[in-house]
Amino acid sequence: xxxxxxxxxxxxxxxxxxxxxxxxxxxxxxxxxxxxxxxxxxxxxxxxxxxxxxxxxxxxxxxxxxxxxxxxxxxxxxxxxxxxxxxxxxxxxxxxxxxxxxxxxxxxxxxxxxxxxxxxxxxxxxxxxxxxxxxxxxxxxxxxxxxxxxxxxxxxxxxxxxxxxxxxxxxxxxxxxxxxxxxxxx
Length: 186
Ligand code: SAH
Fold this sequence. Notes:
Distance between the termini: 49 Å
Strand order of the largest sheet: 3-2-4-1-5
CATH topology of the largest domain: Cobalt-precorrin-4 Transmethylase, domain 1
Bound molecules: S-adenosyl-L-homocysteine
Helix content: 25-40%
Order of helices and strands: EHEHEHEEHEHEHEEE
Shape: elongated
């Protein structure tokens, strides 16, 4: 059996269901950060993933044919996570998107979410702003806020960084790879 388990965005956001699946696993895969967040519950063999891609995903699926395997995904596996790449059961986790919505007091159904983590997305963002006015961008240090300033209309910008962590910060500049940018057409 293969389970793709969300471990939450930070310490304290692991659900009881996730904990149970982690405890029952014979083998647990995950990035260094994901393993760290789940560590105290892991009883099986730990395999820290340093590379990601089709080959390793197929290997994991094969191994799961006769073992109970868990792949950890930080936050929620279905928010720019590992869920879409692996054939298994998905166990949701608390995502950085949920924390951002909580801090901004915004409803998920009022925003468009754009993934700009390790990819360019400025055109997509412009279109999303036109359709919905409010956009949450999954961003990293490479995200260029100047490109947003170049948009003709006025856009309000709020940068939310390291949500759920000790160094959580809300400001107007990007200093971290763990960043969500809120944009609103005003
Ligand atoms: N599955 C994860 C997202 C992985 S993609 C989740 O559900 O949260 C990585 C992106 O998520 C980062 O580029 C950033 O945009 C966002 N992110 C992850 N952790 C974050 C945090 N603590 N604070 C703000 N954004 C975060």
